[in-house]
Amino acid sequence: MNSQAPVSRVVIVGSLNIDLVVNVDRLPGSGETVFGNSLERHPGGKGLNQAVAAARLGATVSMIGAIGDDGSGEWLRRVVLEEGIDDSGISIAPGTSGTAVIEVEPRGENRIIVVAGANESLTAEAVRMAIESFDDVAVVLTQSEVPLDAVRAAMAAGRAAGAKTILNPAPARDYPSDILANVDMLIPNEHEAAEMSGLKTGSALDTIEVAQELNTRGASCVVITRGERGAVWSTAGNSGQAAAFRVSAIDTVAAGDAFCGAMAAAISMGEPFPEALRWASAAGALTATRRGAVPSLPMREAVEELLANN
Ligand code: ADP
User: Fold this and answer.
1) Ligand 1 pocket test: which of 167, 168, 228, 246 has the largest number of ligand atoms within 8 Å of its C-beta?
2) Which one of 54, 100, 103, 203 has the lowest number of neighbouring Cβ atoms within 10 Å?
């Protein structure tokens, strides 16, 4: 990555969750009680995952979101600060922090309950004010685990600040055209792309056609991620593929978050699109080689090494 380029800020607007993972021999049936073997607590939420992904690649990152006034909220803020992420845009809402309760059987079968908690209280006004408080915003990246009004404000304020605006439409929703009109780059995975377009993804060429359809909705650049098959992209008049890096994948959780965070980081450091796409693909691939979400997000050195050897 070009170390001479001026470093500007990546602002991530999104969810912060505490993931409670319970390992059980067998998931309980209705009305049944079973003993869990272990209870782990991990930071999570797509917003926080993507902020950590960008920060570990050396970007200057600010997170905008909401945590509860409970112990989990304090813990999440500590995680943010330990990763070197600016927390000035994280507000405290009365009540619980976003929480995911994840029950996992040894063979991987799982059951997940997500309580949006404080994430649901993030307002458009808070997002706008936080973005306006920075004078060096290069990229604004958001997902859809916060209210649609907050997503709308993120893309509008990012555009007004002259930043590159990126939407990772996860989970997929019906996005009104006024939001998509302010999106420079849309990064869905192939399921989200199919849901948004109403078209089928399949081969790389089919998927490029889906990206082209999504271009007509507003985003001038659409990148669709396809797991171990890499990614395809489309802009007005141009399209192509980015091959996946070959790795021994063991757990692809957060690969998409690594991809989006790395894309934002690379753009903020002045990398041209083809190079940013390679950074994103390398970060996604490395994340698939380790278990978990935040623990699996790679550091800059690991990404540089993978890029240098390919
Ligand atoms: P999501 O997690 O949103 O479903 P994907 O699974 O499409 O996202 O992964 C995002 C990107 O991460 C892919 O485009 C690819 O570059 C990289 N990636 C994911 N899984 C693998 C894998 N098994 N091998 C190599 N790269 C991968």
Assistant:
1) 228
2) 203
Residue nearest to atom 3 of ligand 1 (CA): 256
The pairs formed by 214-219 with CB atoms below 8 angstroms and a separation of 24 or more are: 214/186, 214/188, 217/175, 217/177, 217/180, 218/177, 218/180, 218/181, 218/182, 218/183, 219/167, 219/180, 219/183, 219/184, 219/185, 219/186
Q: State the pLDDT at residue 251.
A: 87
| CA 253 to ligand 1: nearest atom | 2
β-strands 221-225, 231-235 pairing: antiparallel
Mutate to test the pocket of ligand 1, among 166, 192, 252 (most ligand atoms within 8 A of CB): 252
Token digits of residue 17: 């969750």
pTM exceeds 0.70: yes
- Ligand 1 atom nearest the C-alpha of 285 is 26
| % pLDDT > 70, the chain | 98
CA angle at residue 232 from 228 to 235, to 5 degrees? 160
Give residue 1's pLDDT.
Answer: 54
Whether a cis peptide bond, with omega within 30° of 0, leads into 171 is: yes
Domain ranges of the chain: 9-16+45-96+118-308
139 close to 64: Cβ distance less than 8 angstroms: no
Q: So what's the architecture of 9-16+45-96+118-308 in CATH?
A: 3-Layer(aba) Sandwich (3.40)
